[in-house]
Design brief:
Organism: Puniceibacterium antarcticum
Family: Belongs to the peptidase M20 family.
Number of helices: 13
Protein name: Allantoate amidohydrolase
Distance between the termini: 15 Å
CATH class of the largest domain: Alpha Beta
Keywords: Hydrolase, Metal-binding, Zinc
Strand content: 15-25%
CATH superfamily of the largest domain: Zn peptidases
Cofactor: Zn(2+)
Helix content: 25-40%
Shape: elongated
Order of helices and strands: HEHEEEEHEHHHEHEEEHEEEHEEHEHEHH
Length: 427
């Protein structure tokens, strides 16, 4: 396909400048960032971003769960609204591109389109909202997608505000401390767009530069408490020990066994274990496991949960401890809006960018939002498939390609008067 030369491209100078600046907040000096939600570094990044929005004439809004919105009205009060964004919080010792790229690309894309309509004398038909969702990562407070899930109505605000970190601090306390307990009404758009690094190597292998996600896997976030009896690791006879970590180890192995039994249709992990009292010479009395089960089909998730629950008593008995599931956060599987998939592909074709379709196994704020309005995530390649690590990297050229597609999607939606049914065909 011949590349069209009359389509505006992302302002790469702005995109890369914003990307470099946001990467300073929580910089770990080894290429990554450490910016968990509602920490001082996260607050600093949000303060900077709100300043960027305000200086460019956006109306900055903060809702009562700490989501940040920048609204730009180009087409009048009753015009369709397009929301674009992602999140500025990171994993501990995570990568600089995950989430933050989607936020700065959103601002860069809207600014590029605003300049285009001004210079060409185009009358805009849509208004725009840039969003930075609160607690996408779920590293400090569980579950993930917290702000977007409250926004979409799948979690209550009271539940979200009461979430507690390892130190006993709640979301409500930290929102107030950082100044992001807002009271503004949240904008309600007609669609939501999000651009993100892939976090896998499928695009690299296929030589693709753009990939709309067509389907999102479901997930169960399962918290399991294993209770034994605290005692000394020296004199306590081995046959009298009630070691909570030993029981946890049996359960962790079972969680992996489930994935091995259902190869490629079930992904599992236990990536966090909280041990009490966590001393090297005390038989641990308690271990709390944070297990995750991910699958594209509800039946597989139902099966894996049932298998895990059935196995717990037997596994616990092997270590002379008890084990119970104390919480399950459920995220259903689903599909992104097919019109937005077609739109992303048409936008990529205008630049002759190689493309492919993918599922997303990871969660994104668009997954939560997709339950209430048309939404999509568009992926760009991750070098070597790395994500959630300091060497996470996407080339400047691929960052720009994702920005080009985002601008073109905005352009097509605007030219179609906000109609998603017509946007893929708008030229």
């Amino acid at each position: 396909m011949t590349e069209r030369c009359d389509i505006p491209r992302i302002d790469t100078t702005l995109l890369h400048a914003l990307m470099e600046k946001v990467s300073e907040f929580g910089d770990t000096a080894d290429g990554g960032v450490d910016r968990p939600v509602l920490t001082d570094d996260h607050k600093a990044a949000r303060d900077w971003f709100c300043g960027e929005l305000s200086s460019r004439g956006y109306k900055v809004l903060v809702d009562d769960i700490g989501n940040v919105f920048g609204r730009l009205d180009l087409a009048g009060p009753d015009a369709p609204v397009v929301m674009i964004g992602s999140h500025l919080d990171s994993q501990p010792k995570g990568g600089r591109f995950d989430g933050a790229y989607g936020v700065v690309a959103a601002l860069s894309a809207v600014e590029t389109w605003r300049k285009e309509v001004t210079e060409r004398g185009i009358t805009p038909s849509c208004n725009y909202v840039i969003v930075d969702w609160m607690n996408e990562e779920g590293a400090r407070f569980q579950p993930s997608l917290l702000g977007s899930s409250v926004y979409a109505g799948s979690l209550t605000r009271d539940f979200a505000l009461s979430r507690m970190d390892r130190d006993g601090k709640t979301v409500e306390q930290e929102l107030r401390r950082t100044g992001y307990m807002g009271s503004d009404p949240a904008p309600r758009p007609d669609c939501y767009l999000e651009v993100h690094i892939e976090g896998d190597s499928e695009m690299e292998k296929a030589g693709a530069r753009i990939a709309p996600f067509i389907r999102h896997w479901g997930a169960l976030k399962v918290r399991i408490e294993v209770t034994g009896k605290q005692n000394h690791t020296g004199p306590t006879p081995m046959n009298e020990r009630q070691d909570a970590v030993l029981g946890a180890a049996y359960i962790i192995a079972k969680v992996r066994e489930l994935a091995d039994t259902a190869a490629d249709t079930l992904y599992t992990s236990v990536a966090r274990v909280d041990i009490s009292p966590n001393s090297p010479n005390i038989v641990p009395g308690k271990a709390v496991l944070f297990a995750e089960l991910r699958a594209p089909e509800p039946d597989m998730l139902d099966w894996s949960e049932a298998e895990l629950r059935a196995a717990l008593p037997v596994l616990a008995q092997k270590a002379a401890v008890s084990a119970e599931v104390v919480a399950v956060d459920r995220r259903p599987a689903g599909r992104f809006d097919s019109r937005l998939v077609s739109l992303a592909e048409a936008a990529a074709d205008d630049f002759s960018y190689p493309k492919m379709q993918l599922d997303t196994i990871a969660g994104h704020d668009a997954v939560a939002v997709n339950a209430t309005l048309p939404a999509i995530v568009i992926a760009v390649p991750s070098v070597n498939g790395v994500i959630h690590r300091n060497d996470e990297y996407t080339s400047p050229e691929d960052l720009a390609a994702g920005g080009d597609v985002l601008v073109n999607m905005i352009r097509r939606i605007d030219l179609a008067g906000g109609s998603l049914d017509k946007a893929a065909g708008a030229i």
